Amino acid sequence: MEFTKYMHLERFGTAEVEGIEIGVAHVFPKIDGTNGSIWLSDDGEVVAGSRNRDLSKGDDNAGFYAWVKEQSSIKQYLAKNPEHILYGEWLVPHSLKTYRDDAWRKFYVFDVMCAGEFIPYEDYQEGLERHGIEYLPLLAKVRNGNEVSFQKCLDKNVFLIKDGEGTGEGVVIKNYGYKNRFGRVVWAKVVTNSFKEKHHKAMGAPLVGQQIIEEKVIEKFVTAHLVQKVHAKIANECEGWSSRYIPRLLNTVWHDLITEESWQIVKEYKNPKIDFGTLLRLCNARVKQVMPELF
Question: From CA 28, how far away is CA 121, in angstroms rounded?
Answer without folding.
Answer: 10
